């Protein structure tokens, strides 16, 4: 099938603390967004855990999961929404997990981060920004 569109893929490392560097990168390619007329974005920011642990047993790993999965995904949305709106809108697919709806034991940080993502998707839908949650 041919749809007459171009696809560009950008990879970001959301485990780093410097979200401003990512914002600058988006600003640099913003002109590209205008040319391309961004219409579809996949928000697939996330990391997992190797071991099941009680919350607090490994605070650094808990912080990393919350930072990447919750803050990283939220930052990503705040980066792509303005250029998309300037181009007349588009679609964003937010990938999350069933743990955002039904958390499971020993994955508190992961589940909490997924609750945040599900909340953002619901919020944007209520505000008239149509997102597709998976």
TrEMBL record:
Presence of the UniProt keyword Transmembrane helix in the record: yes
UniProt entry keywords in alphabetical sequence: Membrane, Oxidoreductase, Transmembrane, Transmembrane helix
GO MF annotations, alphabetized: oxidoreductase activity
Spans through the membrane: 107-131
Cited Gene3D superfamilies: NAD(P)-binding Rossmann-like Domain
Recorded family membership: Belongs to the short-chain dehydrogenases/reductases (SDR) family.
InterPro entries xref list: NAD(P)-bd_dom_sf (IPR036291), SDR_fam (IPR002347), VLCFA-Steroid_DH (IPR051019)
Protein name: Oxidoreductase, short chain dehydrogenase/reductase family protein
Pfam families linked to this entry: adh_short
Record GO cellular component, one term: endoplasmic reticulum
Protein source organism: Teladorsagia circumcincta
Superkingdom of the organism of origin: Eukaryota
């Amino acid at each position: 099938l041919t749809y007459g569109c171009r696809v560009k893929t950008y990879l970001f490392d959301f485990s780093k603390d410097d979200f401003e560097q990512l914002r600058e990168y988006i600003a640099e390619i913003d002109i590209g967004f205008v040319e391309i007329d961004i219409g579809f974005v996949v928000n697939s920011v996330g990391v997992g855990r190797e071991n099941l642990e009680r919350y607090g047993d490994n605070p650094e790993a808990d912080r990393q999961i919350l930072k990447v999965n919750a803050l990283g995904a939220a930052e990503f949305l705040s980066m792509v929404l303005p250029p998309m709106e300037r181009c007349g809108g588009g679609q964003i697919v937010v990938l999350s997990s069933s743990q955002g709806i039904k958390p499971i034991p020993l994955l508190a940080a992961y589940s909490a981060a997924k609750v945040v993502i599900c909340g953002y998707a619901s919020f944007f839908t209520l505000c008239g920004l149509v997102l597709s949650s998976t």
